[in-house]
UniProtKB/TrEMBL annotation:
InterPro entries in alphabetical order: Peptidase_C11
Pfam families per record: Peptidase_C11
Protein name, per record: Peptidase C11 clostripain
Length: 715
């Protein structure tokens, strides 16, 4: 007779069994099949392979399958795969398999109903490496019924895997991708915090996908084997299933990334010269992976084998990196045109245009937070033409002596950035053109268009075609005694391509200025594609006669939309001065600002010479008001010889300016001064150079008195 305790235990076991909750399994293999797309029919073939093995007491095989709307059984269902069949576990209806919450729900169901010592999560669908989940060619999962896809860049995959980790309450022991091109370091980094091993292919996966009968037979035969024991067998089974085909598969230990990434970062940041010819040779010969099933790998593919690249480069300083890379790959098999695959891929486009087009998306990867790979590639191509992002002044603080503190947001760029801060007074709109007619301009090839505009009803259009040399030139020049600022809105799509034989191919709109319409100076050159209307803001030089030109030039090859131009404004200033130049900080103190009302704007420049758009004027409302007169000072400070003596005094006042020694001896006097900047040779009234030391400067007129200190230092 059973004791009361034993009866309670068996009662619990019986209840759990009736509820469909498995006990004591070593593994639950959770297959998440997003077949609501062109792979719908293939899903049934893979299910048949799974049914050849079926679940056991030690290994549960659980599938969530979403079929396409055209299928005879559309919608999503769950199954437990058994020998020669399956057990239905529930109808979910129509779900979005590219939704993080749906994957989390599947993981929660697994944890509740089929808990196990280890979990093998297989993500089944199309794959495209690290890409974002937008557009027809960028996805991991694609759910046609919902028009949604899940990408890697941007954090969608990372969020999904984190949610699985939370639902399971433990790390995924093996993460598998039955999908193309997913064995990348960029993909691995998205899951390193919640997965131990990753099984995937660096290249394309055949339409029939994984041989599930062979894979599952390996696990069922030895359920207590470790991943490092059974993953090599799975890789071998995959290769044997596709004799004569160009395929590869590998398994990596994702826990090794914690050791690898700091070494890779230090190597890329400190030990390498990206312009070393060895990197170019390595890139031209390294194993690549085609995204086109009809074309073998070639040098133009943007996915390369990371392992082989560092072996080929073999640059000084990479020895430690290569030694750390080795333990990462625990299994690797490859054949045919991808036979040199080393087990882990990375992104390395073969030209700068492709790099630039994808860099913004790539920057959203977790890998970028750990390794300066984007910066390495940018330096490698040595063609940086991307402006730093526009800085924005966000805050100020005005002290009691005309001391002003300004803060602005940091500009993003792949190269080191410095800032230039401008101070202006009385900015006024000196010119406006809504671009509805060409009255203010001399136009060759340009016209107005109602096709696209920033504001109704039309905009200027550059024209589109081959071998264009279209010009839009201001008829009446502007006068800027103290400089100005140009604002205009543009929308464009022009050719920007790379030809391996001839190099860059671009159709370009140049923005130029000139004082005589003969010698033109380029402010900016616009090419490529703007996804939306964007404001351009440029500093204009001081000039008594300044012409502006928009100059669109195209070549004989591909012609795209062209450029639209709208809402041109020009601001003139009563004064403009540079108060900070080449500063790397995003905070700046202005000491001893002159009496007056001021606005500020800032630009960013990178080490390649690219300059950002000027920020908006700050403050946007009332200006910063300095209500004290600045103390006199010199430029430079301290001075050695000749210098500028900078003064601040009211309009209409002609003060005397006296320079004294600290003991009170007058050494120089300027009478009835009308200019606020005096050119001074640094000598006394007798023409002798001053001795090193401190001096007092007194600015004095009827009803006005201001004193400051200056210093002379000999070198």
């Amino acid at each position: 007779m059973l004791s009361g305790c034993m009866r309670r235990v068996w009662s619990i076991v019986l209840v759990l069994g009736i509820c469909g909750i498995a006990l004591g399994a070593q593994w639950t293999v959770a297959v998440y099949m997003c077949a609501d797309n062109g792979l719908n029919d293939q899903a049934y073939l893979d299910l048949e392979e799974m049914e050849e093995i079926g679940s056991t007491d030690e290994v549960n095989i659980i599938v969530q399958l979403d079929n396409a709307a055209r299928d005879t059984h559309p919608g999503c269902r769950r199954y437990r795969i058994v020998k020669d069949g399956f057990e239905p576990l529930g109808e979910l209806g129509e779900v979005d398999m590219a939704d993080t919450a749906v994957l989390r729900g599947f993981a929660g169901f697994i944890k509740r109903s089929y808990p196990a010592e280890h979990y093998f999560l297989i993500l089944w669908d199309h794959g495209n490496g690290w890409s974002e989940g937008y557009g027809p060619s960028r996805f991991i999962f694609i759910d046609e019924s919902h028009g949604h896809s899940m990408g890697v860049a941007g954090g969608e995959l990372a969020a999904a895997l984190q949610s699985v980790h939370q639902a399971l309450g433990t790390r995924v022991r093996v993460l598998g991708f039955d999908a193309c091109l997913m064995e990348m370091i960029e993909v691995a980094c998205e899951g390193q915090d919640c997965c131990d091993y990753m099984l995937a292919s660096e290249g394309l996966v055949p339409l029939d996908g994984w041989p599930y009968d062979k894979f599952l037979a390996t696990l069922v035969a030895r359920p207590t084997a470790t991943p490092e024991e059974f993953l090599p067998e799975m890789c071998s089974a995959y290769i044997e299933a596709y004799l004569g085909e160009d395929i590869c598969i590998s398994a990596i230990d994702m826990r090794q990334l914690d050791r690898l990434l700091p070494v890779l970062e230090a190597t890329v940041r400190d030990s390498l010269n990206p312009l070393d010819p060895g990197f170019g040779r390595a890139r031209s010969t390294v194993q690549t992976f085609s995204k086109n099933p009809g074309r073998p790998p070639c040098v133009h593919d943007d996915q390369i084998d990371l392992m082989q690249f560092w072996e080929l480069a073999a640059a000084e300083g990479t020895g430690i990196l290569r030694s750390v890379l080795g333990p990462l790959v625990v299994a690797n098999q490859a054949r045919g045109t991808v036979s040199r695959a080393g087990g882990l891929a990375t992104w390395f486009p073969d030209n700068y245009v492709e790099f630039k087009a994808a860099a913004a998306s790539y920057a959203k990867l977790g890998f970028v937070d750990s390794v300066l790979w984007l910066q390495f590639l940018n330096a490698y191509f040595a063609s940086d033409d991307v402006k730093p992002t526009q800085p924005v002044i966000v805050k100020d603080n005005l002290g009691g002596r005309g001391d002003i503190r300004l803060w602005w947001n940091r500009s993003h760029d792949l190269a080191p950035v410095s800032y230039k801060l401008y101070e202006v007074s009385l900015p006024v709109e000196a010119f406006r053109d809504d671009c509805n007619d060409l009255e203010e301009w001399s136009a060759i090839g340009w016209r107005t268009s109602e096709r696209d505009y920033h504001s109704l009803p039309r905009a200027f259009f550059s024209g589109s075609g081959s071998n264009l040399d279209n010009q839009l030139v201001l008829v009446t020049p502007w006068k800027f005694p103290h400089g100005g600022l140009l604002s205009c809105y543009v929308y464009f799509s022009t050719e920007e391509a790379w030809d391996s034989a001839s190099g860059f191919k671009r159709d370009i709109c140049y923005i130029d200025w000139s004082e005589n319409k003969l010698d033109w100076h380029t402010i900016d050159s616009l090419y490529g594609s703007a996804q939306y209307w964007q404001e351009c803001r440029y500093v204009l030089p001081k000039s008594g006669s300044l012409y502006l030109r928009f100059h669109y030039v195209s070549d004989s090859s591909i012609n795209r939309l062209g450029l639209f131009l709208d809402d041109i404004k020009v601001y003139a200033f009563d004064t403009m001065r540079t108060v900070a130049e080449a500063t790397k900080d995003t905070v700046f103190y202005i000491f001893n600002a002159p009496f007056g009302n001021y606005k500020y704007f800032v630009t960013a420049a990178d080490s390649s010479g690219n300059v950002s758009m000027a920020s908006q004027f700050y403050p946007s409302g009332e200006p910063v008001m300095v209500e004290t007169w600045a103390e006199p000072y010199t430029k430079p400070a301290p001075f050695q010889g000749s210098c500028e003596l900078c003064l601040d005094f009211p309009e209409g006042v002609e003060p005397d300016v006296m320079i004294y020694t600290i003991s009170g001896i007058l050494v120089r006097k300027f009478e009835n001064v009308t200019k606020r900047v005096l050119e001074w040779n640094g000598k006394n009234a007798a023409g002798h150079s001053l001795a090193d030391g401190l001096y007092l400067v007194v600015v004095k007129a009827k009803g006005f008195h201001k004193t400051g200190k200056i210093a002379r230092v000999g070198f």
